[in-house]
User: Which sequence fits this backbone?
């Protein structure tokens, strides 16, 4: 396996030394490109109080290509599908090598605060979010309580 | 003789490419710091008598005595947003939108996407970016 680029080492060190509030990202013991991530549900969002597990993988040509990120914890959100895949522009065509693990996770946290049903990944969730937002928010809170608070 | 010296100086600056000018900037620093002189390049050229010494210095610098140069980087310009190494350790480039990266990092990034990594401005063609040279003085 090729040596770990210095950028990845630096990013990892900085994530440890100056963690982002509400986010923890710890590299796997046997693969420094694979991170165990926990994002806390933002205040004043239906996900408040929840701890959401994600996995983040830095591909071989990172930072030229985006990290691959997926929710492991089930979440009721119009831009996150049942497999945990995330619809977020900076993870796709808006990626730039000047972005970092830190900025990606901050964007994901922001996505939890501001669901965007007009650019859906989970169509049923997005639909409900548009026609009956209060019910969608109730579902999101229920899923948070059921899946993101049990430990 | 005075004319010759002057001609030498004009030749050096006018016919050099940008890359060589960077070498020239390094030479000025070298000469001043080694000899503790505050004299101009022109004076030092006279002291060295010919531009061959200068050329030798430039060659030495461009062939990478980077470690020797490092302590002279007094100002910190921040890190390259791509490799996160300190800017100035490697040759730098600025995009035409004014964002600075290591030249290698920027070139590599532009192979993936023709946009500025910082502001995403579309970058294409010869004038999309250019080398950037900073004097340490």
Assistant:
């Amino acid at each position: 396996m090729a040596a770990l680029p210095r950028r990845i080492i630096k990013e990892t060190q900085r994530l440890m030394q100056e963690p982002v509030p509400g986010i923890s990202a710890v590299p796997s013991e046997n693969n420094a490109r694979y991170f165990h991530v926990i994002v806390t549900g933002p205040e004043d969002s239906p996900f408040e109080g929840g701890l959401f597990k994600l996995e983040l993988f830095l591909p071989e040509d990172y930072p030229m290509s985006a990290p691959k990120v997926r929710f492991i914890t089930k979440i009721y959100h119009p831009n996150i599908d049942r497999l945990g895949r995330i619809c977020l522009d900076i993870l796709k065509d808006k990626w730039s090598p000047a972005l970092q693990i830190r900025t990606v996770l901050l964007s994901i946290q922001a996505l939890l605060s501001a669901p965007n049903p007009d650019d859906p990944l989970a169509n049923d969730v997005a639909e409900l979010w548009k026609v009956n937002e209060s019910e969608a928010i109730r579902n999101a809170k229920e899923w948070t309580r059921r899946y993101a608070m049990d430990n | 003789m005075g004319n010759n010296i002057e001609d030498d100086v004009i030749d050096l600056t006018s016919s050099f490419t940008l890359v060589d000018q960077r070498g020239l900037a390094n030479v000025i620093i070298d000469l001043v710091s080694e000899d503790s002189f505050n004299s101009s390049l022109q004076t030092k050229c006279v002291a060295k008598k010919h531009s061959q010494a200068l050329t030798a210095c430039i060659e030495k610098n461009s062939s990478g005595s980077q470690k020797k140069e490092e302590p002279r980087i007094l100002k910190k310009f921040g890190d390259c947003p791509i490799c996160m190494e300190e800017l100035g350790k490697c040759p730098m480039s600025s995009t035409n939108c004014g964002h600075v990266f290591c030249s290698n990092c920027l070139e590599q990034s532009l192979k993936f996407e023709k946009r500025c990594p910082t502001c995403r401005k579309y970058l294409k063609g010869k004038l999309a970016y250019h080398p950037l040279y900073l004097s340490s003085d």
Remarks:
- Residues 20 and 104 of chain A are 11 Å apart (CA to CA).
